[in-house]
Amino acid sequence: MSANCTEWAVSEGFVPYPEAVAFMEARAAAIAAGEAEELVWMLEHPALYTGGTSAKVSDLKDPERFPVFKTGRGGEYTYHGPGQRVGYVMLDLTKRGRDTRKFVHGLEDWIIGALASFGVEADRRCGRVGVWVNRPDKGEDYEDKIAAIGVRLRRWVSFHGIALNVSPDLSHFEGITPCGISDPRYGVTSLADLGIEKSLAKTDEAFLTSFETVFGPVRKIAAPDL
After folding, report:
1. Percentages helix, strand, coil for the chain, rounded to the nearest 5?
2. What is the pLDDT of residue 2?
3. 3-to-29, 137, 152, 194, 217 alpha-carbon distances in Å
4. I need a surface site. Which of 47, 66, 150, 201 has the fewest CB within 10 A?
5. Are 32 and 95 in contact (CB under 8 A)?
6. What's 60's DSSP letter?
7. Active site (catalytic) residues
8. Exposed (0-12), middle (13-18) or buried (19+): which is 168, by Cβ within 10 Å?
9. Are residues 61 and 159 in contact, defined by beta-carbon separation less than 8 angstroms?
């Protein structure tokens, strides 16, 4: 979608959430001003909950369990923590068509492509943001979300992004109503829960390959120095 290479960085260890948001906001502003390149930043957070612009207080069921952050991304409450790969996506949509729906579709295709490389058949669902897998082992019409999407645009530059459950403790999601979906047919899963053991490094490789297919080439750089 873009003629230029997007920078690609991977952070080791846990990245504090406030510092990550501050960095994203500054980088998005620099991209909009033409002072920085687009960036995809892959990282892992310590255990925490975040509430997007549509978050309802009633969906935060255990506010004392982990730190809770209000954030400007779209969506409701979600969980971040160990074993989950977060991808923060700072792309210039002015150069990519200024089509928000197409952009979110691209994020979904990025995740779906990465999962396909592990033999996971996943897809989007009408009316439910994120990427889902069918769970016939749980019952008819049961589905689980394996990846969440929540983004914000400022001056047509995106920030925040996606979160794929690789091997998190799924009980940590019990402190919230994930993305506001309370229907018992719709739960949360991970690669490990599906019987697929992958390291975050292997997951990053799959993400990089899929990103280049959907959005264009990348150039690896050092992780941000926060």
Report:
1. 25, 30, 40
2. 43
3. 21, 44, 23, 37, 8
4. 201
5. no
6. B
7. 179
8. buried
9. no
pLDDT at 155 exceeding the cut of 60:
yes
Count CB neighbours of 22 within 10 A.
Answer: 12
Nearest alpha-carbon partner for 155 in 98, 75, 215:
98
Give the global pTM. 0.95
Task: Name the token pair of 78.
Answer: 């979600």
- pLDDT of 163-222, one tens digit each? 999 999 999 999 999 877 888 899 999 999 999 999 999 999 999 999 999 999 999 999
Q: List the beta strands (DSSP E) in 135-182.
A: 143-154, 157-165
Count how many residues are written for the chain: 226
Q: Are 160 and 150 in contact (CB under 8 A)?
A: yes
CB atoms within 10 A of CB 100: 14
